[in-house]
């Protein structure tokens, strides 16, 4: 099989696999503010039930590091592919079981507790999925196309958002009104069974990363990769995590379900219909997909760091444009606000896999990228919808949310400035010494 054909198969497999994983993950997030707040947390009252439902979205993030630790440990010892298959199955099983859950009205407090348990399983799976997918893509890629190839699993996020929002919107049309709350919401969760079967079949045929093959042939697997990572690269893990927080916090305005809830809340200032808002979110995810790929390709030309610096400026523009447009009450202005936001989201996301892979040495790379991503997601998006809901309740204005997102983005900008650009550095174990030089400005190894 030619190298180009192998890279094509890897790209396809990582896109399909991550799309399915994020479909499952975002489906819960979208349902939290539209469905779970009523059916599982309803007795808490309108505002508190929504805040608690959003908090369950965030709880899963607290378990992402556990998934990252497990996946990183075994991914650096046993390979990238086996971890990806396990995380796909775990995520799909949890999602399908959510579709079968009785509501609070049927079994009382056991209903939200079981819901939270399944969300925790989703969090563990998501923590292990990302590192394996992006390393397969980046480590298979040619150096000159590393940024572009690395962006492919990233578009799984936008495709997952398109699918989850689109299927929910379709079900609001098929099962309108009370029927949606009675049974219609369950269908998208059942659909996960079919999607996971397809993803499993595709991932089984993917070849292991050539970098890991070389590590195994040299018998250079580290016995305790996590221990080595935190002993030698703890500061790098912190900075890499902070690079991600701005994108993740802003992105979870939609992927975390906040905009969907804010725009459709009958007691809120907007009061739009659920279906059109879900379709607008799905359509804006197409823009996110496009700019994610563009950012990956651009980073191959101007470097990862320069692409990030451009991206943070674009994201700040998107953040301060979003709520003024949403607050017009027009579905078209809401869509425009989301599209402007996705330009910055794409330009701070497409280059992330290649940048992360280039930061860490091959022996602890899976652990490094997975743990950094997991910690960044906790600090960034984990409770962003809950914080946004609380800020609006306390201040009465969405300006407070924009300021919060802008401050988090500035943290990521500062972390980006603290790192050296290592675009194109060799990724194989033969260059471990070069890779181990700490890429932090002002810090010597």
Automatic annotation (TrEMBL):
Q: Which CDD domains match?
A: MFS_ShiA_like (cd17369)
Q: Where, by residue number, does the polypeptide cross the bilayer?
A: 51-70, 82-101, 113-138, 159-177, 183-202, 234-259, 279-298, 307-325, 331-350, 371-395, 401-419
What subcellular compartments does it reside in? Cell membrane
Task: Report membrane topology.
Answer: Multi-pass membrane protein
Write down the Gene3D superfamilies for this protein, in alphabetical order.
Answer: MFS general substrate transporter like domains (1.20.1250.20)
Q: Which residues form the Major facilitator superfamily (MFS) profile domain?
A: 10-424
Q: Which residues form a coiled coil?
A: none
Task: Select a single GO molecular function from the record's annotations and give it.
Answer: transmembrane transporter activity
GO annotations of cellular component type: plasma membrane
Concerning InterPro entries, the annotation shows: MFS (IPR011701), MFS_dom (IPR020846), MFS_trans_sf (IPR036259), Sugar_transporter_CS (IPR005829)
Q: Which domain of life is it from?
A: Bacteria
Q: Keywords, A to Z?
A: Cell membrane, Membrane, Transmembrane, Transmembrane helix, Transport
Full protein name? L-Proline/Glycine betaine transporter ProP
Give the source species: Brevibacterium aurantiacum
């Amino acid at each position: 099989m030619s190298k180009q054909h192998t890279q094509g198969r890897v790209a396809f497999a990582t896109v399909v696999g991550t799309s399915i994983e994020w479909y499952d993950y975002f489906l819960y997030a979208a349902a939290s503010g539209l469905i779970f707040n009523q059916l599982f947390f309803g007795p808490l009252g309108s505002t508190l039930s929504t805040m608690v439902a959003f908090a369950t979205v965030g709880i899963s993030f607290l378990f992402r590091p556990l998934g990252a630790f497990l996946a990183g440990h075994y991914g650096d010892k046993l390979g990238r592919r086996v971890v990806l298959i396990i995380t796909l199955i775990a995520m799909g099983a949890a999602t399908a079981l959510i579709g079968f859950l009785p509501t609070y009205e049927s079994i009382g407090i056991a209903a939200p507790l079981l819901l939270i348990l399944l969300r925790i399983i989703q969090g563990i799976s998501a923590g292990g999925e990302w590192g394996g997918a992006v390393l397969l893509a980046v480590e298979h890629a040619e150096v000159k196309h590393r940024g572009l190839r690395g962006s492919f699993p990233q578009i799984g996020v936008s495709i997952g958002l398109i699918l989850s929002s689109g299927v929910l919107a379709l079900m609001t049309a098929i099962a309108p009104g009370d029927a949606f709350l009675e049974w219609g919401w369950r269908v998208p969760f059942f659909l996960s069974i079919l999607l996971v079967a397809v993803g499993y079949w595709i991932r089984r045929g993917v070849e292991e990363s050539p970098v890991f093959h070389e590590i195994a042939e040299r018998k250079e697997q580290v016995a305790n990769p996590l221990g080595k990572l935190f002993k030698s690269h703890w500061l790098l893990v912190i900075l890499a995590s902070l690079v991600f927080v701005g994108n993740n916090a802003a992105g979870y305005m939609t992927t975390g379900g906040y905009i969907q809830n804010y725009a459709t809340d009958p007691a809120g200032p907007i009061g739009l219909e659920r279906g059109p808002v879900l379709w607008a979110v799905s359509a804006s995810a197409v823009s996110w997909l496009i700019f994610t790929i563009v950012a990956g390709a651009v980073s191959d030309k101007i470097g990862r760091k320069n692409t990030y610096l451009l991206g943070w400026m674009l994201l700040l523009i998107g953040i301060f444009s979003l709520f003024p447009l949403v607050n017009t009450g027009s579905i078209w202005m809401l869509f425009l606000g989301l599209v402007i936001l996705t330009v910055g989201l794409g330009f701070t996301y497409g280059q992330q896999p290649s940048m992360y892979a280039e930061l860490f040495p091959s022996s602890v790379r899976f652990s490094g990228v997975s743990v950094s991503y997991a910690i960044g997601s906790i600090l960034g998006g984990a409770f962003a919808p809950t914080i946004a809901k609380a800020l609006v309740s306390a201040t009465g204005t969405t300006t407070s949310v924009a300021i919060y997102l802008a401050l988090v983005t500035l943290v990521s900008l500062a972390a980006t400035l603290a790192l050296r650009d290592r675009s194109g550095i060799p990724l194989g174990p033969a260059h471990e010494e070069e890779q181990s030089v700490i890429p932090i400005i002002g810090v010597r190894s």
